[in-house]
Amino acid sequence: MSSVAQKRGFGATLWDWLTTVDHKKIGILYLLGGGIFFVIGGIEALIIRIQLLKPNNDFVSAGLFNEIITMHGTTMIFLAAMPILIGFMNVVMPLQIGARDVAFPFLNSLGFWMFFFGGLFLNVSWLFGQVPDAGWTSYASLSIASEGHGIDFYAIGLQIAGGGTLIGGINFLVTIITMRAPGMTYMRMPLFSWTTLVASAMILFAFPPLTVGLFFLTFDRMFGGNFFDHTMGGNTIIWEHIFWIFGHPEVYILILPAFGIFSEIIPMFSRKRLFGYAAMVFATVLIGFLGFMVWAHHMFTVGLGPTANAIFSVSTMAIAIPTGVKIFNWLLTMWGGSIKMTTPMLYAISFIPSFVMGGVTGVMLGSAPLDYQLHDTYFVIAHFHYVIVGGVVLGILAGTHYWWPKMFGTMLNEPLGKITFALFLIGFHMTFLIQHWLGFWGMPRRVFTFMDGQGWNLANVISSVGALLMGLGILVLIINIIITSVKNVRVGNDPWGDGRTLEWAIESPPKFYNFAQTPLVRGLDTVWIEKMEGNKSGFTAAEPVQDIHMPNGSIIPMIMSFGLFIGGFGAMFHAEEAWGLPLLIFGLFVTFASMATRSLKDDLGYYVKKADIERDLKQKGGRN
Amino acid sequence: MMMKGLKKWRLFSLLAAVTVFLAGCGQEQLSILLPAGQVGKDQFNLLILSSVIMLIVIIVVVIIYVIALIRFRRSKLGEDHIPKQTEGSHILELVWTVVPILLILVLAVPTVYYTYKLGNVTAMDAVDEEGNTENLVVDVTAKLFWWEFEYPELGIVTAQELVVPMDEKVYFNLIAADVKHSFWIPAVGGKLDTNVENVNKFYLSFEKDSKDLKDGVFYGKCAELCGPSHALMDFKVKTMPRAEFDTWVTAMQATGEETTDVAAVGQGEELFQQSCIACHATSAVGETGAIGPNLATFGDRNRIAGFMDHDKESLKEWIKDPQKYKPGNKMQSFGDMSDEDLDAIAEYLMGLSVEK
């Protein structure tokens, strides 16, 4: 926030955040929204582990337990992990490629508000006491049979949030393709920007199937469609295919940006160029491609027949190869480097073995006959938490510590960061390692309780204690954030001291126009190259100081998303309440009227004057 | 003396190691690590093979990782050390692409082999010269939250407790009557979903007598979220030699021939005829499609409702308020039934047996 903003009143500041189209501010909004949902999903996880602490426990009822596991999964995937990663992409990617904003700032804002209102819609279900309860996968026979409006909240909430994600993905694609600074060729792009590109392309192809599936579900439940009603000629297996054609790429949409974060952190704190950069890029693209070829491995027990199962087994195992390439390249990046154990680096080095363990159990599950045994057991729970927590969440925590100074201009406390790390990592392995054996011992997943005498008691206690440690770790992180914000010790351009990519050559936090002059990029790790050649600023400009064109803020994206939010309630209640249909029409009217306003009213943005930029430069006493 | 003591100690430590190992294998009646049939054994072999391959990968990664972390710390190299900015190595990239491909192939070949082997149900329709099916076929129907087992060729039906002969392939037709479930007997072999719209077919073979197990039964589970009481949708499996199974079948078929002597009917049976018969049959002769579980073998069973202790007290509690114990199930409550009547019904049900 600039010093000008700080002098403004609360109302003006709030208005500024509601209307912002600045990619850095939208990124911070994503992190804030995703962070709140992450805490909610975490509390749900703790309730699950309390319920499973001992056999025949009655901490929560059977029905409530199903609601909690459904909301835990849905919240963590759609409302926590994705938005937080999109937040990092928003803040960092334009800085890394030397752009002043994303290609469509207005759409960027729209994407955020759709995510926010979609997530809110989903969670409002708690207030209605009618919560989604068919699992985050919402398999059709159960989701059609589910009573109340729970599944309706799921279908409409995810539809709105998913639309936001799709918009975000397209925006990032266009930004990376068209807005790279002079000299920033594709093969000089930092790995995080590469993974953003591939993840965005995957969003483009993976989310439309989800949209279609959710529309089918919505129409089945609210408007008498029969897509999934087999007694009317529908088919429930279609939902499983549609869901996983989206759902499998989705996990790569999550993990690739996390790979990207680690591919930034490991070189920086090894003080060494990423080993095998070209192979890393190729592996990223290959994983993105293969990610669409393996969805049926979630359905080996559905009865697709041996041929389909065999094909999907082999394609699944093939993904291990590019993933292995990545692991070894990270190891060889550290090899011969100069490793400094900062908090982000601790997360990065603990990620490698944690993720390898999740990866190898993935290959085991990819063997169809073995999956007949392991499918839908606690082994699967252990596997995907090893990749999602051991990969994505460690990536998110690493990225939080790593880019915090760039986003807020002050560094998170390192000792507290290391305490969070230790608590979280120990808790994580304690919770999930033992669950592999619970699966071997015959414990199915998604059970609200278990009988005594099956040999599962001790393992479940260990697992629950581990979950508590993870919770404590996150608590320390929140305390750390508060302390850091209060102290607010300002830092310079490159607080870690070994910056390699463009974001470390500009102020922390950057000016709203990012770069006073568009940078010239002379190679991979351009800032490092400049510094090694004696240019201490790490920056060479590609243009003289001149007027910069910037977009105006707008409240329209928020109103547009809000229209969908209230329209959703109309759709849900249209059959039982008189006000349902009018509300649906009103909501859609608000949305379309906002769109019309945006289309019909020219908004050409404004120019930051050359004189103002020169004054900013002088204030700092130097260039960029 | 000392040698002897040492030997003893060795034996003891070996015993301790075996105990720990066995504890890690879980319980015999429901652990996939102690397979009691060929299907489970095939899958267990794949588990061992894949675990070994994956352990090799983990060990290689961990060795490189540990050495790198020890040797290349900045605290050792000094703050000013600038490492050489290596671009990469084509040879290394080739090595860690080709070696994993080979490892994957070692796993992929048996995977494909077993996928076809376990998916082969052609023998299901095989008939002998007289037109009788050569193999035992069981039709399984999964319902909220119980299991119905019909033996179509034998004309009998039972519920909650599957009874099968040992040492032969038993073929299954699986379907769900309401929402999707999944049929799984962990110790015997992997699961297959019971879909709502199509029949799934597979086979299992049972190679251990369930008599020798802790409760005298293998545990079966529902492995697909199906509603509030998904966790309680257990069933049990009794295995026995073929001859014993044939005796059981004959006894089951005989339950349909019993002529009720009106005068001799006990109070429990009379009450049952009034209150329960609309949903629950007590004759095992018939087909699938009942509203509630068939109770012809109730007295032989191991659990009430699939998971509760098999005694009169639990049975009475269950009849009074089934929703309390298995939320979302379709049985109505009999909360206003007198204790005497409940006693009589429980007495009657516990007496329903074909094995005693």
Automatic annotation (TrEMBL), chain A:
Places the protein is found: Cell membrane
Record organism: Filibacter tadaridae
Enzyme Commission number, as recorded: 7.1.1.9
Domain Cytochrome oxidase subunit I profile intervals: 9-522
Job description of the protein: Cytochrome c oxidase is the component of the respiratory chain that catalyzes the reduction of oxygen to water. Subunits 1-3 form the functional core of the enzyme complex. CO I is the catalytic subunit of the enzyme. Electrons originating in cytochrome c are transferred via the copper A center of subunit 2 and heme A of subunit 1 to the bimetallic center formed by heme A3 and copper B.
PANTHER family registered for this protein in UniProt: CYTOCHROME C OXIDASE SUBUNIT 1
Enzyme class: translocase
GO molecular function, one term: cytochrome-c oxidase activity
Membrane protein topology class: Multi-pass membrane protein
Protein name (Swiss-Prot/TrEMBL): Cytochrome c oxidase subunit 1
Family: Belongs to the heme-copper respiratory oxidase family.
KW Membrane (keyword) present: yes
Top-level taxonomy: Bacteria, Bacillati, Bacillota, Bacilli, Bacillales
TrEMBL record, chain B:
Domain Cytochrome c: 263-353
Cofactor (UniProt): Cu cation
Segments crossing the lipid bilayer: 43-70, 91-116
The organism's taxonomic lineage, starting at the top: Bacteria, Bacillati, Bacillota, Bacilli, Bacillales
Gene Ontology process terms (BP): ATP synthesis coupled electron transport
Major enzyme class: translocase
Family the entry assigns: Belongs to the cytochrome c oxidase subunit 2 family.
GO CC annotation, single: plasma membrane
Localization (cell): Cell membrane; Membrane
Protein name per Swiss-Prot or TrEMBL: Cytochrome c oxidase subunit 2
Annotated ranges, domain Cytochrome oxidase subunit II transmembrane region profile: 24-122
EC number annotated for this UniProt entry: 7.1.1.9
Database matches in Gene3D superfamilies: 1.10.287.90, Cupredoxins - blue copper proteins (2.60.40.420)
Record's catalysed reaction(s): 4 Fe(II)-[cytochrome c] + O2 + 8 H(+)(in) = 4 Fe(III)-[cytochrome c] + 2 H2O + 4 H(+)(out)
PROSITE patterns for this protein: COX2, COX2_CUA, COX2_TM, CYTC, PROKAR_LIPOPROTEIN
General function of this protein: Subunits I and II form the functional core of the enzyme complex. Electrons originating in cytochrome c are transferred via heme a and Cu(A) to the binuclear center formed by heme a3 and Cu(B).
Protein source organism: Filibacter tadaridae
Cytochrome oxidase subunit II copper A binding domain residues: 133-251
Topology within the bilayer: Multi-pass membrane protein
